[in-house]
Design goal:
The protein is α/β, with parallel strands linked by helices and 316 residues long. The protein folds into 2 domains: 173 residues, 3-Layer(aba) Sandwich (Rossmann fold); 123 residues, Rossmann fold (3-Layer(aba) Sandwich), CATH 3.40.50. The chain has 8 helices and 17 strands. The chain has a 7-stranded parallel β-sheet, sandwiched between helices. A hairpin with a 2-residue loop joins strand 8 and strand 9. The longest helix has 17 residues.
Length: 316
Amino acid sequence: MAIFVFAESHEGKYKKAGLEAVSYAKVTADLSGDTVTAIVFGDSPADELYKYGASKVLKIQNDVLNKFDANSYAKALAEVAQGDIIILPSTNEGATIAPVLAYKTGASLVTNVEKAPSSVSPFTVARKSFSGKGIETVSVTGKIVITILQNSFGIKESQVSGTEEVASISVTDSDVKVKVISTDLASSNKIDLKEADIVVSAGRGMKGPENWGIIEDLASVLGAATASSKPVADVGWRPHAEHVGQTGKAIAPKLYIAIGISGAIQHLAGVNGSKTIVVINNDPEAPFFKSADYGIIGDAFDVVPKLTEELKKFKG
């Protein structure tokens, strides 16, 4: 039976997390000898999904679904995803749909998965637990809904030939439980913080919001997203959409640069999936240095502008 995956997109373009979920589905399908069917809301191109291993693309086109609603999206997915394994990215949308979808399909729910399963019969996989402080191995039989941590598994090309068709669903206005009235931009980032390969983050060591220019300059040179610690968001120096940590967004970029952040356990819980961590802090006893791959002991107002200038020269 085919493995189904929600290939999340926005305005006709697939999200990085959506392609990562398709890549994960393909590896899982190879282990079980199955095929991958990708489900798309809208009319994003199917060819791109063939490149990552989807041999069939089902497109759901319904005006009711033009605005996101977890219940109506889950109902649509439940109607077309007639398989034992349904995979979603752990984005805001994916993580909101997953439990509703599991309920509607009578499936078990496994969240925060970052590695391929070690077995598919029964389905056995490791997942992050306790806000990323632990790794839990679970074994599931029967139907299963899985969410894949962003930037954890990676995007892997696996070209196949495929087909596409428009799926028929019965979703109506009565299925919409939450209606979006308006959407406001809550972050200065041009790219999704959870999908960013590089993140430049700062904390109370910046002393005030008026000093954030050097953080944004460094991020601009690196093509990075900006983030902040919880105390900074709480006092309004930065929007809460940029808050990373246990009570904020959990991220796993290739490079995480922490500037003026002490490194409390609550913050580490949201960034410990980062491949490389660089810490800049003037306190040599800052806890963050114990978790860092590279550390610079120094004044951020001296170190960061110099680092930015050197990167400009290097890129030039």
